[in-house]
Amino acid sequence: MHVIYLHGFASSPLSSKATFFAERLAECGVPMECPDLNQPDFSTLTVTRMLTEIETRIAARPPGDIVLVGSSLGGFVAIEAAARQANATEHPVTQLVLLAPAVELEWDKWSELGSAGVDGWRAAGDIDVFHYAYEDYRKLKFGFYEDATRYAPSARRLSVPMLIFQGRYDESVSPDTVERFAARQPHASLHLVDDGHQLKNSLDVIWEHTAAALGLPLLGL
Question: What is the pTM of this model?
Fold first, then answer.
């Protein structure tokens, strides 16, 4: 089993959830890989580029089961990656763990777009995004929007087992979009928690369910 963690939008491998998972898995002797999806340049970020990075890393692994953990936009990418790996024999995705997954990119919630919205982004060519890893603003080209609209993870129906954790008070991802997605999945277990988008108060609960799904001991709690 090899675990790949996909961090969220304007985040990094040093995020609190990525660090939490890395520490818990390490205690169980399970390595976790968390690629920096901002690279080589955040301004040219696209979903396609992220998918290519994940697929390249999966292909480089020795044959074996793959577990994808996706946070927010990382959940969007994890769903698409699992769908594209559906018929893989050497590197099957055997478990998805989705943390407040952005199954739909709700552009009306993007404060960075301002009153001009998507049309303003298109006209300007880029927008300023506050990047939490860099603690500063970074440009993001309109190509991100154009590319992202090619994908529709909310419409996917996957046979892979999945754990989904969603905060009832999430300000970035609407819980009802996640509930609708989970209802369409034959092997999904949805856990609604009294938390926001960061799920900071629910990490222990998330780990308990994840460890059980992966057959790991409950260490570090």
Answer: 0.95
